[in-house]
Write a structure and sequence with these properties.
This protein is α+β, with helices and mostly antiparallel strands. The protein has three domains: about 45-110 and about 260-365, no CATH class; about 120-245, no CATH class; about 375-435, no CATH class. About 25% of the residues lie in helices and about 30% in strands. A hairpin with a 4-residue loop joins β9 and β10.
Amino acid sequence: MRGQQHDTEQQYNVHREGFTIASPIKLPSANFIRFDIAPVVEAKWMLQRSVCWARQKGKNELVEVAYVAPSAHVRRDLLFTETIEKFKAADERSDSDRALHPEFVDSALFQDRETVLYTGRSVPRFQLGDVFLAVGDRVDVDLQDGTGVRGAAVVDAYFAEAADGLNVDACQHAGDFVVKCKLSGGEEANILAHYWHSSSLPPLSWMTDDAAAVSVTALRRIRAECASSTGEATGDLGMATASGGHERLEGGGTAKPSRQRRMTWGEKDGAAFLIVCLCFYSDDFRAHVGKEISMGGVYMSYLSWLFNDRSSSHAVRTLAATPPGVDSDVILEAIAPDLRVGAKDGWLCEGADGKPVRVYADVCFYVGDYVQVAKTSMLMRPGANTPCTIWSYRFSGAPGPRYGLDACSANVKLLRTTARTRAVCKAVSERAGGQ
């Protein structure tokens, strides 16, 4: 209701007086619209803003920084039927559509994140050759000596430890991938995927308790212990040869182990839920408004939407535009509590049909250009001459760390060192020390 020199409000008052003359129903005053009607409309349909305080560069006082929390964007988007359909579209595709145009929700990072980011000893799901296996499956193994094993149960899978050493033989070595199997008679044996001496050893070996290793010529997954999502046991899925080739079996082809697909929406305990995959992008830049000033912006995207729906500037959700001299990282820190609530307990929202929906925030990753990522993660600029993004290397004759800046040691905990890396490094170190 207010434009330059109050022209908008004055025009409305003129129109209101003319309308009142010809109609028995009077239009509300500008103040009534401003203080009574507008707050109701804003509370129902407009984005709710939050406020944090940040220090401007070169100044001591704090300035107010307004931003829109991710939950506020989600709550508003769920009020519209067409927007809700975009959240559900990925799950409504057929299997052929998923194979032809895979989306983010089809990736292992969403469907099987536990395995993708797993750092423990056991590996619950894995692939040998072209055969996907999981702990609990049963396999048929064909050996080079003409014999074979039928129905061996996969009870564990892990990387061999440093104690297994690096000896030049066909036995188990540090870093080898070990699939522990249990036979029908109770005996145990291992399938070894060799990490060391790959030029002289077969890709896969079958090793029994007496340490006799035989080359594996073919491996076939016959069924999983757990039932599929339809309640039926899965049939034959495929065969992998030791050379990495694949042969199809009747009634089935290569496929991943039977595992219920992770859905982005549905009902649990009688209540509707929705999983929203979020990606954040931030960038600090220099704007020229009479003079050069430093500003920043933080944005959010829905990765659970189909690519065609999210590959548009209209699909981007703006969280904040920071004032001059304020680092955009303050917004990332400000929205962290809101994201923790969404990830743990979920945001209780209202759908377009008026029914409650609990929305869970799945924060997938952060995006930024090289310079922004280096600044946000407290690393040096992308043009650094040092080879490592963690350790505090120093230039000759220059004081202080040149990579990682003041936070280089604190961020070492962000690295995920696998059990295989630890085992191999320890075994190599012990072997080098022995020599």
